[in-house]
Amino acid sequence: MSETIESKCISKGVKLTDQRRIIARVMSEASDHPDVDELYNRVSKIDSKISIATVYRTVKLFEESGILTKHEFKGGKARYEELNEGHHDHLIDVRSGEIIEFVDEEIEKLQKKVADKYGYELVDHKLELYGIKKK
Amino acid sequence: MSETIESKCISKGVKLTDQRRIIARVMSEASDHPDVDELYNRVSKIDSKISIATVYRTVKLFEESGILTKHEFKGGKARYEELNEGHHDHLIDVRSGEIIEFVDEEIEKLQKKVADKYGYELVDHKLELYGIKKK
DNA sequence: GTAGATGCAAAGTATTTGCGACAAG
DNA sequence: CTTGTCGCAAATACTTTGCATCTAC
Question: In the 8-state DSSP scheme, what is residue A7?
Fold first, then answer.
């Protein structure tokens, strides 16, 4: 088990409030990639007085602090996921919406090579595959 | 020179109106990746009576007809680009916003391989690299 | 004690839509 | 002709923000 979101907040100097603790916990427990609405729903079940504005503010803060990462998959709302050491990309089932996480070192290496070829240093990247399940 | 947007409309059964012809022309001439606002500005210079609703409706129609393709780069508005045979991905300069198009067959192949590994047939994909220029 | 966080409602963006008038095939 | 398109303004969806109050440190 790696660092908890709470300990990350402390090490990054992010003030911990009850609301943030709850949001952190819900995100830690999420195995999917909830959007703000869905996160707000889950959080509301624990503390119904948390406002959606706080959820928006918190995911943004957590993102800037490198605690969460934001995805903007095709045509949908922004979705969030806890950021851990191991980077991965996403394969999205266009029929069911299911999201599979994968890692491919080879692709990562090639991306760096491409950036390098144009004289750039890679600071970020986004790779999303959209597919349909084969029978 | 490949097929014009106009001829694509005809072959795809998309009704051609003055407005659509103008939008098609502006997109054909664009070497960048304009968002709807910018496209609306350019189009307005040719016919100031075209409404932004028509621009929205048209880019959506063209996208569904496979004439334009939509990009949702990090944190920005949707941007559009003419869709031609040769697929390419994008390298975005995070400082200047400049967009470089590139093709990497190797990466394309690996993407198919990844999808295949999980039992999926690739129908679409998105690869964006974000970098800063090296000195 | 004080800077920063929260809840609320109002304000922003980006995009879509209902409707009557109009134009393409 | 008839179906689909256009312009307009209103509506929607998502996200941000001003402000007064409250809370973590």
Answer: H
**B39 min Cα distance to partner chain A (Å):** 20
Scan residues 48-67 of chain B and list those with Cβ within 7 Å of strand C.
52-53, 56-57, 60
Q: Which residues of chain B have pLDDT under 50?
A: none
Torsion of CA B45, B48, B53, B55, to 10 degrees: -30
A54 touches strand C (CB under 7 A): yes
pLDDT digits over A112-122, tens only? 999 999 999 99
For Cα atoms A75, A77, A79, give the angle at the middle one, nearest 5 degrees: 120
CA distances from A74 to A109, B62, B124 (A): 25, 17, 10
Cβ contacts from A onto B, under 8 A: 111
Q: Is a pLDDT exceeding 70 seen at residue A2?
A: no
Query: Global pTM?
Result: 0.89
> Could you say which nucleotides of strand C lie within 7 A of any protein CB atom?
4-10, 13-18, 23-25
Domains and CATH numbers, chain A: 5-82 (1.10.10.10), 89-131 (3.30.1490.190)
Give the type of residue at B134: K
* Non-local CB neighbours of B55 within 8 Å, separated by 6+ positions: B23, B36, B39, B40, B43
**C-alpha dihedral over B127, B132, B133, B135, to 10 degrees?**
-140
